[in-house]
Amino acid sequence: MNATQLAAREKYIQDIQRYIKVDEDKVGNLICIVPSKSNPEGLDDGAWHTVHCEDKTSVPYTYHCSCESFEYRRVECPHMKAVNAMYARIYKSNIVKRDAKIFVEAEEVKAKAAKHNTPEALDKSCNKELRETKVLKANNKGSTDLAGKGALNGATQSAEFWGSLPSRQKVL
Ligand SMILES: [Zn+2]
């Protein structure tokens, strides 16, 4: 494709956007009806192509076109380009917001990683985990709710010990 043809195609992609009809297919998927190259004026009785769009994202994007070009080449055809350009225009603020959010999140992750992944920090977090394990064990031992813990450590408790518990004395 030479420069003149490329320019003509860009013009076609721009020009047909005003005729794009937004609809849904039989099962409720978002579709755009786009004038064929042979129908640059978007005449109702001219040729049209159906472009399927994914709309669960912040900006809808195309994934299929009924034209021959897409059928054979499986790459974004001019009809899909026109639809994507239309949505990029309509959802401009979403695109700006989304890109800004992605940038901020990436920077936050980078900053956090840089802060935490020092050798000292890794060492500290390891010690903290060990300390918490010790506290947890101490709590188990010191708990007054021994009857509830029976299933855990009953096997190591003597009958005498169980008999000395107030709740057991009542039963016995
Ligand atoms: Zn197409």
Q: Which molecules other than protein and nucleic acid are bound?
A: zinc ion
- Beta fraction of the residues? 5-15%
Q: Quick one: overall form? A: elongated
Q: Which series of helices and strands comes N to C?
A: HEEEEHHHHHHH
Main sheet: strands, sense, barrel:
4 strands, antiparallel
What level of helicity do the residues show? 55-70%
End-to-end span in angstroms? 97 Å
Structural class, please? alpha+beta
In oligomeric terms, what are we looking at? Answer: single chain
Record field, number of beta strands: 4
| Unreliable sequence segments | 138-155
Strand order of the largest sheet: 1-2-3-4
Number of helices: 8
Radius of gyration: 34 Å
The averaged pLDDT comes out at: 81
**Into how many domains do the coordinates divide?**
2
Tell me what you see in this structure.
This protein has 172 residues and is an alpha+beta fold. It has two domains: 88 residues, no CATH class; 39 residues. Helix content is 57%, strand content 13%. A four-stranded antiparallel beta sheet has the order 1-2-3-4. Strand 3 and strand 4 form a beta hairpin. About 10% of the residues have low confidence. Zinc ion (ZN) binds next to helix 2 and helix 3.
